[in-house]
Specification:
Belongs to the cytochrome P450 family. This protein is mainly α. It is built from 19 helices and two strands. It has a two-stranded antiparallel sheet. Helix 9 packs antiparallel against helix 16 (303-333).
Length: 395
């Protein structure tokens, strides 16, 4: 029988480093040749460098901060309306094709790695497979119908009124700076969270409208290019205890607190819906109660999935609506002619600013106001990033 000493003196296997490097080099050479000459999209015009490696896109998005979309625009000017932008994708510069690619009747799906960008892979927004996305989105559609929004308008108006009160008492007649980004972020967060989840943090009452949570949402949005290319970063952070991530990134603490609060709210609503208790802890129906009443299968109504949906609604709604309002505010105030014309229309429609405000349907009938709303929606955006689609049925 061999002794332990004899085994410990056995020679370790040697790794031929030069052979390993050569093999890897041959692999890369073969991969590049395939991508340049044999790929199904090898005939599509575009830069050779971006055809052989996706790291070129990563450089412009991560290191240069989301600038890849501007490189695509340059390539279209050079190569034409259809361009190969990386080893796997082609890009269209054709306005008429937009309605084809993003039509509600299409059966196109998103690419798989997009589901991990926000850390909510089971939320409707991040669902990549078309049929599953349609089922999940369909369960929430009644909650976001026009009729439901109109019923909720008085609460939204009360939040706007609170903003006006602060402007009158804290800013009017002073040289105090009013930051639209902070004010609109607090307003949209209060409205969205109360409407969707029956939760309100009264961020509009924070000094100068600066709420740590809205700041965290903005920082998360700014990190999207990084986690879009390296989704494992967010997966790693989510696997760590909240206390550890709080030390590594203190800005995430308000997000963790919100996650805890929304989890507790979901548990309460699930318990009430299961027991049929008519005495609710919430004063109006939430998106969770709507989903729990839907025909979604049981596995689609788990705590984790409902929480992902809630985080997606908040994350996707706050910054996008805030940006639209900021864009409108700046466009109106910086252009005296627009400001004058809009004010004249509003004064004619509402001579007494302290009277009961017009309803949403009445406001929609004001042509210049309606035009401004449409234009600010056209000019504003959430995050400038591509929305890739795959056709699983045909080339």
């Amino acid at each position: 029988m061999a002794t332990i000493t004899e085994f410990t003196h056995l020679p370790l296997p040697r790794i031929n480093l030069s052979l390993l490097v050569s093999g890897f080099g041959l692999y890369l050479l073969g991969l590049f040749i395939y991508r340049l000459f044999l790929s199904p999209i090898a005939n599509i015009p575009g830069p050779k460098l971006t055809a052989v490696t996706g790291w070129y896109e990563t450089y412009h998005d991560v290191y240069r901060g989301g600038k890849f979309i501007f490189k695509i625009e340059e390539w279209h000017q050079q190569y034409g309306p259809i361009v190969r932008i990386n080893p796997w994708e082609i890009h269209f510069a054709d306005p008429d094709f937009y309605d084809v690619l993003y039509s509600q009747k299409s059966q196109f799906s998103k690419i798989d790695h997009l589901k991990y960008r926000f850390g909510t892979p089971t939320a409707s927004f991040d669902t990549t497979e078309h049929a599953l996305h349609a089922r999940r989105r369909g369960a929430m559609n009644p909650f976001f119908s026009r009729q439901r929004i109109l019923q909720y308008a008085p609460y939204a108006q009360s939040r706007v009124q609170r903003l006006c009160e602060r402007l009158e008492t804290e800013y009017k007649g002073t040289s105090k700076v009013f930051c639209f980004n902070d004010a609109w972020a607090s307003l949209t967060t209060d409205v969205i969270n109360y409407y969707s989840f029956a939760m309100s943090y009264d961020f509009q009452d924070y000094p100068d409208f600066v709420a740590p949570f809205t700041k965290s949402i903005k920082l998360l949005a700014q990190s999207l290019h990084l986690v879009g290319h390296f989704p494992w970063v967010l997966t790693l952070l989510q696997s760590l205890p909240d206390s550890v991530v709080g030390v590594l990134n203190p800005a995430m603490v308000p997000v963790f607190q919100f996650q805890g609060a929304i989890t507790d709210q979901i548990r309460r609503i699930m318990k009430e819906e299961a027991s049929g208790d008519e005495k609710k802890t919430t004063d109006h129906k939430t998106v969770f109660s709507e989903m729990l009443k839907s025909d979604l299968p049981k596995q689609e109504l788990s705590l984790d999935r409902l929480r992902s949906e809630a985080l997606s609604i908040t994350g996707g709604g706050v910054d996008t609506i805030k940006n639209a309002l900021v864009t409108a505010s700046y466009g109106i105030i910086s252009n005296p002619d627009i400001y004058k014309r809009l004010k004249e229309e509003l004064v004619e429609a509402m001579p007494d600013p302290h009277a009961e405000p017009l309803s949403i349907p009445e406001l929609e009938k004001l042509p210049y106001l309606n035009a401004i709303v449409q234009e600010c929606l056209r000019c504003s955006y959430g995050i400038t990033q591509r929305l890739q689609r795959i056709d699983p049925h045909s080339p």
